[in-house]
Give the backbone structure.
Amino acid sequence: MQHITGIPRNQMVFTSLEDSISEDNSVRFVDAFVENIDLKVLGFVLQTLKTEGRPSFNTQIFLKIYLYGYLNGLRSSRKLERECIRNIELQWLLFGLVPNYHSISDFRKNNPAGLKKLFKVFVSFLKDADLIAGETIAIDGTKSRAHNSKKANLIKRKLINTWLTLRRKRNNTWMNWLRMMKKKTA
């Protein structure tokens, strides 16, 4: 019995990036969104054309990278650069351009206010278009200061007692609410 064989690696294949991306793929939405927003209103520093040296990337390229990363849980500039090389969706989105991680990082560093406004607009648009529900709120990144004084140090017994007290309070609140609801229905 024969096995299924693939295409030889050295065989030339003619395809287009357009054929590789389906009509309902989220990168098409990201592309249309970035192409239709006014970057100056959001406060982005637009890349100017230079007379000397290598030309810079268009600001929209970096926005597409960050929105794609936002939708796919990629935050690191190095991971975003790696995805630009190997991910066919990003190749389609960026027209085959591959900015290096330092350029991606510098864009984030130079445009914090613009990115903050962009993500607010993006999330509100997704919510208005019913593409996300917006019912779950998550906070990413916790900053804590380490200190281990006698006051701040929690021992196991103290921690368990605190947790049990909290549980009792919540249970009492819940039971009171149930009694109140039972009285209203009766």
